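Re-running the complex after MR caught last week's input typo. The corrected sequence lines follow. Everything else is unchanged.
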Amino acid sequence: MNNQLIVKMVLDRWHAQLKNFNDTLERLTDDQLLLEVSPGRNRGIYLLGHLTAVHDAMIPLLDLGDLMYPDLAAPFLTSADKTVDNLPSAGELRKAWYHVNNELNAKIESLRENWFEKHTAVSDEDFAGEPHRNKLNIMLTRTTHLAYHLGQVRLLGRN
Amino acid sequence: MNNQLIVKMVLDRWHAQLKNFNDTLERLTDDQLLLEVSPGRNRGIYLLGHLTAVHDAMIPLLDLGDLMYPDLAAPFLTSADKTVDNLPSAGELRKAWYHVNNELNAKIESLRENWFEKHTAVSDEDFAGEPHRNKLNIMLTRTTHLAYHLGQVRLLGRN
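Corrected-run output:
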């Protein structure tokens, strides 16, 4: 099995989930994003900010540069929904979402030969014994993370 | 990159999502499974039956044997929720869920060397030009499918 085919299989899943999320996002109004996905649960806007922050964090994790939106970590990674005042607006988060994913997708194009190197959150020592903790594995885990929350955001509106 | 490592990366995701789903399922009562994941949406019991039928279908797709629960296809694959009378009970579906996944997981152990062969829903001709349509790709797509619905089932109860 050649590496190029494996990388394609994994990236195809990533891009498919991103496309499904974007299709859903485009069908939702800003008002719908302010609703909870189920009573008492996270709001759409929180999940949008959360996914944006998680995808932004993939850039340094894949050693492809710095965070684009470091200010999203506090409200959307380390805080729960409805505990933070003055969140960015739905419009601002939509912009950040597309901005982050477009940059990330452009940057990963350059990784063709380096997908099986370690990511930046694992030490050389640990990587020697755990070679699955490579950059391609980041794409696998973030793809299931995206699918998980997509299932929730899809509950908003009547798509 | 050796094939064994790639297979481990993909199967680790599969098993992690299955474990998360099982943990969630064990925290939910049968009564909670009868609730909709969000108002007007699918009920937990439907999603449990749906995932059981989809995972059952992986057995013939991976050329590992016959369907174990062919009767689940009509209510949970080709019908929407709340359109079919006399669904199996939550208890019956829980049993079928574990039965199917245990069998499937035992069977895929035998696939060590054959993950990159074509699955049974693609022809030899198509596979020649689309070698990513292999058995390992089935695991990738079903893992994101499971994550998608896990995100929804997790909305039930107050876990």
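None of the earlier attempt is carried over here. Residues 116 and 153 of chain A are 32 Å apart (CA to CA). The first helix of chain A runs from residue 3 to 27.
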